[in-house]
Write a structure and sequence with these properties.
Length: 162
């Protein structure tokens, strides 16, 4: 592990320790949801579930705050994709599989951002939507709808099972 990776891991661990549930609660859920919607490999569902398990009356506020944080993180990823597109426009060629994925996303347009809730592909999908310069606000709306559905269903399911 490089020094940079180690320092990043330490910084994330310190941030999560500072935002430890339940002492901070909803702000912690917001930060974790925001960070997990970028290209960093984190999951925000455990933070939402933990808060709701400790304080069931916070189900809807936690889902709303997590949706807002995750949607704003997806919007940031959209802007990063747009910036990356501008920066690499001249230098990078596309493979056949990348071209097919881009054609698929262009064909579906902003509604494809409904899939931004999916693990592994959801966050990069937001970046690619920015790369393709799909309309920002419709993309954000579809991201929010998909992410809201994920938080409601995942949290309700976990509360039912556990």
């Amino acid at each position: 592990m490089t020094a940079m990776e180690e320092s990043l891991q330490q910084a994330v661990a310190a941030l999560l320790a500072a935002l430890a549930l339940p002492s901070v609660g909803l702000p912690a859920v917001f930060v974790v949801a925001f960070v997990s919607a970028t290209l960093l490999p984190m999951g925000s569902e455990p933070a939402v579930f933990a808060l709701v398990k400790l304080e069931p009356s916070l189900f809807w506020p936690a889902v709303g705050v997590a949706t807002a944080g995750n949607t704003l993180g997806g919007a940031l990823t959209w802007w990063m994709g747009r910036g990356a597109q501008r920066a690499t426009e001249r230098w990078v060629g596309r493979s056949a599989s990348e071209a097919r994925a881009l054609v698929w996303l262009q064909r579906f347009g902003p509604p494809a951002c409904l899939l931004s809730w999916l693990p592994v592909v959801g966050d990069p999908l937001c970046g690619v939507a920015g790369w393709l310069r799909l309309p920002f606000w419709p993309c954000v709306l579809y991201m929010a709808i998909g992410k809201f559905g994920r938080y409601v269903s995942m949290t309700a399911f976990l509360l039912w099972v556990i």
